[in-house]
Amino acid sequence: MALEKRGVPHVCFSFPWLVARVGYTPYLNVRGVNVLKDLDALIIRPIGRGSLEEIVFRMDVLYRLERLGFYVVNPPEAIEHCVDKYDLLAILEDAGIPVPRTAVTEDADEALKAFHELGGDVVVKPIFGSRGVGSTRLTDPEVASTVFRAITFYHGVIYLQEFVPHGCSDIRAFVIGDRVAAAMRRVATSWKTNYSQGARPEPLKLDGELEELAVKSAQLIKCKIAGVDILESPKGPVVVEVNSQPGWRGLQSVTNINIADEIVGFMLSELKK
């Protein structure tokens, strides 16, 4: 809709429709469209679910497009960092961004030690995942041990994070380029504050410190369009996630800013550079 209003020609397609070639051209096409010749940019919304092979192939395609000078939002490097919760938080912490205490291991016994190190009240999350799906709060060591062993039985990685008291709400800052285009407070009836899990969006104007925190977090991983999730802990704000393919349905309901139009405007300004 935002592209149509601006009169920008466009096509919408899914990754499974792509055909990639090596050694002959077109290097990438989708149902009659030569991506490199007929298009100027790609907006990834979203990369989608798939097997390991499917996801790796899609990322390979995006990296090749980037090497060939094609404009991709978000860049594949940013997508990879955001998908991996451990990688993301490690990068943020290395740059001085406050993050929750977090432990990651493949060993159930070590995970139980970390459970106690983190105060016996933790949230276990899939290291790859979004929207709060699969996240579980654990306060009982016996239950925790059972969960940890179940994860390792299926060759999973145990990602556990201290539970941060946050009053059943958090902040989502929608970063576009070098600014926060809009923000909201997500208010829930439980500790899970995802909009997709039923949290109620409320309008919010960020102060300078929080806006700087959100923008810096996105820029550290070269994420041009990002949803940055911030918890207001008793010790101050902490960044828990940066989303490279953020939804904005809830946010749009509490802001007068047309988020889709802001994204298109940003993309067009980037292409002019």
Describe the structure.
- With 273 residues, this protein is of the alpha+beta class.
- It folds into three domains: 2-73, no CATH class; 102-162, ATP-grasp fold, A domain (Dna Ligase, domain 1), CATH 3.30.1490.20; 166-272, D-amino Acid Aminotransferase, Chain A, domain 1.
- Helices cover 35% and strands 25% of the residues.
- It contains ten helices and 14 strands.
- It has helices at 2-5, 35-38, 52-67, 76-83, 85-94, 108-117, 141-153, 208-220, 249-252, 259-272; strands spanning 18-20, 28-30, 33-34, 41-43, 71-73, 102-105, 122-125, 136-138, 158-162, 169-176, 179-187, 200-203, 225-233, 236-243.
- The protein has a five-stranded antiparallel β-sheet. Strands 6-9-7-8 form a four-stranded antiparallel β-sheet, with helices on one face. Strands 1-2-3 form a three-stranded antiparallel β-sheet.
- β2 (28-30) and β3 (33-34) form a beta hairpin.
- α6 packs antiparallel against α7.
- The two termini are 24 Å apart.
